[in-house]
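pasting for ref. prot 1 ->
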Amino acid sequence: HTMAVKAVSSVDEAIGHINSHSSGHTESVVTEDPTCAETFLRRVDSAGVYHNCSTRFADGFRYGFGAEVGISTNRIHARGPVGLEGLVIHKYRLYGNGHTAADFAGAEPSRSYIHKRIEGVAAAAEIPQAKLAKLS
């Protein structure tokens, strides 16, 4: 697996880099500064933006949508006759405190993540739920 990490000198530099180079799917910021976090969550142009929690929460099943059948980073994705609800897109904000994604309880077949410790990074406590805010 590959993890993209870049050290930056400001939240503005981070936001500019992410908005230029990301897939638009899910981004996360780790900071103790609530103003920095809110700026990041508000200005990063991705479907999911997270503060102090794992991007492994980015899953339709975890969001309560049932089985995830696909993902889209497009802003308009519907085809054929479409009503107003079909044109609405959503942005999700997840607020955490070192939250990580637990294994999928009750999934058939059983699924689990393999977490590896990254040298120099403190281990976060395993907490099953984080606060999810849906923005339309």
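and prot 2 ->
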Amino acid sequence: VFPSLAQAQASVANEVYRELGQPSVFLFCPTEYCSSLCSPSPSQSCYLLTLGQELLPGIGVIWTGPKVVSQELSATLLEEVEGVLRRRPIIWDNLYANDYDCRRVFLGPYMGRAPGLMPRLRGLLLNPNCELQANFIPIHTLGSWFRSELRSCAYPDHAGMETAAALGDSQSPQKGRYSPQEALELALHDWIAEINRQALEPGR
């Protein structure tokens, strides 16, 4: 019936979206959901170009970054994806996902995301560790990153300088700028307090 997979998917997604009354949150995960799955690149992918043209503008499109599990996210990549999809992407961040290897648990701070990304995003979803309690640090440090992004949006001059900084430089603390190390220390402080609180509960 359809000349391509992208047109088939867009047609079905649009129909469901309309049938549900065009809700404010409606997410579509494309078959090519990261750069490594695109041929030859996101901006030259016939599949993504078709989705950008055919999907109704209210439908959010999920993107994981350069890879399925992306160690880094840059503003340049998000600009490319926004251009081809004709909308800002929703990042589905697999930085902490361990469902592909449950012998590992990821407890480091949220990092590798260039400062000043928020204006390039429609939203961000964090795919956590399968083990519930192990996600305290990931979610806590994501909150710290988010607050620093809000400050950057409030002070655009600072955001511009931060966006120009290399991703590796995000380790060094600067006033008003997200520091993974400082975020980790804050998270550990609060996590220890939470563990101690739970230890004092009756029956623990």
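Residues 5-154+177-200 form a domain with the TIM Barrel fold (CATH 3.20.20.80).
The chain has six helices and four strands.
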